[in-house]
Task: inverse folding
């Protein structure tokens, strides 16, 4: 039946021409092939976010007086509402995790090298936007933790010299975090960010499609030495089916996490209450949070906060432009980039654990 | 791909595997769809179970006029007729659910949406309404006008 429908459509729209590049596409097979799956898993989790996000929109109500109650309503009154919201929260966190894994795997496999510099940049921008999704979505239930996390997070933006204050006021919709901030973040979360991410995903996937999969330099060298060791599999259906199996596992993990550890709602935000003790941001911001906490309030004559934020910004910029520091000869990759990658990974993990354990 | 040499079309073993795979995928999607469909159906609005409301105070209404009051989650119409008696009706038109109003010039209840006319007792007189408006009991408690569902209704 499906093939009959396909033939009917193909006769009219010549779908075969469109699909042809996918049929020819191959995926290199070697001992590190499994790292190729993480981008696809991230994309899949993004799809889960779109679907569950649209479902949450059926009942969510943005506004300082309604937001918390509407999420409470979803969690207690709407059938399977607790499940949909838990999946949305868990999937968000897993998506950020897999995006980070994808980023580090691309870094260590040196897949960002020429001609894939722009693929790396589009991916890094996607990572920043995904973190923006996390930051803006975190506020939407309007609970105490989210309220103060947003206060601190936007205040950090305010520390940036010259442009910081106007940017903070823009983000908050005023000098303070209020219901106006909630409405803004809601708009960013459901309209602005999905639009930008949608475009960037299209660009990212187009480039991945156009350039094919990168083979790590070490394995490429092995293949040059011994051409008979070279292995490939067809992207469609061989790799795609494996990828879908990974998605199947992902949805299983997601469902189990959401059902066994339903996401907490917390206590409704009180803008005039005091911040609770031990307040922390989401885990993916912890390494930055902890770094800022460790910097003394004055370094030489510069404000510690300003230094920290500028440092983070500079590190982010360096990371974004990393491919341009790499040598163009695959046989002589820059060792220091790998070293920096290992250092960054250790730093992020160490600071996150430290931030998690610190009082 | 290699290994294709011996796979006769329609082999029962292959077909069994295909049924398992297809059935598993279908079952998976069903398990996604079921909660989603249940989720999309809004939970029943808690019927406040209102049986009695205070529709107003004596003296609020002029004779030969009407006013809308809340009867639970739906609107009601309180009428003070020219002869000084109170009458309470459901204000939801039985045609397509518009909210009706009392017309002093007609001495009748009028639905502006499709020109439906009801008598002061709720009887459907002309226009499209298929059924009379539900009438409520009215009694006075001090200076409050209390509207209740008709007993046995």
Result:
């Amino acid at each position: 039946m499906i093939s009959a429908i396909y033939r009917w459509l193909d006769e009219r729209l010549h779908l075969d021409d469109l699909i042809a590049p996918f049929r020819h596409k191959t995926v290199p097979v070697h001992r590190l092939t499994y790292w190729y799956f993480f981008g696809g898993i991230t994309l899949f989790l993004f799809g889960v976010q779109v679907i569950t996000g649209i479902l949450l929109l059926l009942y969510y109500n943005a506004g300082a007086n309604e937001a918390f109650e509407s999420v409470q309503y979803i969690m207690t009154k709407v059938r399977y509402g607790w499940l949909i919201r838990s999946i949305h929260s868990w999937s968000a966190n897993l998506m950020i995790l897999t995006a980070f894994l994808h980023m580090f795997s691309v870094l260590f496999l040196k897949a960002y090298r020429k001609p894939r510099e722009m693929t790396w940049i589009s991916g890094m921008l996607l990572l920043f936007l995904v973190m923006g999704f996390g930051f803006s979505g975190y506020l939407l239930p309007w609970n105490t933790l989210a309220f103060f996390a947003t206060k601190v997070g936007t205040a950090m933006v305010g520390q940036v010299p010259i442009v910081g204050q106007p940017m903070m006021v823009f983000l908050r919709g005023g000098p303070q975090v209020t219901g106006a901030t909630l409405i803004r973040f809601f708009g960013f979360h459901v309209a602005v960010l999905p639009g930008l991410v949608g475009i960037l995903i299209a660009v990212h996937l187009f480039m991945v499609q156009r350039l094919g999969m990168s083979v790590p330099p070490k394995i490429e060298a092995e293949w040059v030495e011994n051409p008979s060791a070279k292995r490939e599999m067809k992207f469609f259906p061989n790799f795609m089916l494996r990828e879908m199996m990974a998605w199947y596992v992902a949805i299983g993990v997601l469902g189990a996490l959401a059902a066994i550890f339903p996401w907490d709602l917390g206590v409704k935000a009180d803008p005039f209450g005091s911040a609770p003790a031990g307040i922390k941001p989401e885990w993916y911001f912890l390494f930055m949070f902890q770094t800022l906490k460790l910097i003394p309030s004055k370094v030489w004559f510069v404000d510690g906060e300003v230094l920290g934020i500028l440092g983070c910004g500079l590190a982010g910029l360096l990371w974004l432009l990393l491919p341009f520091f790499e040598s163009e000869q695959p046989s002589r990759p820059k060792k220091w980039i790998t070293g920096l990658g290992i250092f960054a990974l250790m730093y992020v993990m160490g600071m996150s654990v430290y931030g998690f354990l610190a009082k | 791909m290699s290994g294709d040499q011996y796979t006769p079309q329609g082999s029962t073993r292959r077909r069994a595997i295909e049924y398992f795979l297809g059935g598993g995928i279908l079952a998976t999607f069903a398990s996604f769809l079921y909660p989603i469909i249940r989720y999309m159906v809004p939970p029943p609005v808690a019927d406040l179970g209102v049986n009695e409301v205070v529709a107003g105070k004596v003296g609020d209404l002029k004779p030969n006029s009407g006013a809308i009051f809340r009867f639970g989650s739906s609107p009601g119409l309180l009428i003070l007729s020219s002869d000084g008696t109170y009458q309470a009706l459901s204000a939801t038109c039985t045609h397509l659910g518009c909210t009706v109003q009392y017309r002093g010039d007609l001495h009748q209840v009028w639905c502006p949406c499709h020109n439906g006319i009801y008598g002061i007792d709720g009887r459907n007189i002309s226009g499209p309404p298929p059924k009379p408006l539900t009438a409520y009991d009215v009694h006075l408690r001090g200076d409050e006008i209390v509207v209740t569902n008709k007993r046995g209704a």
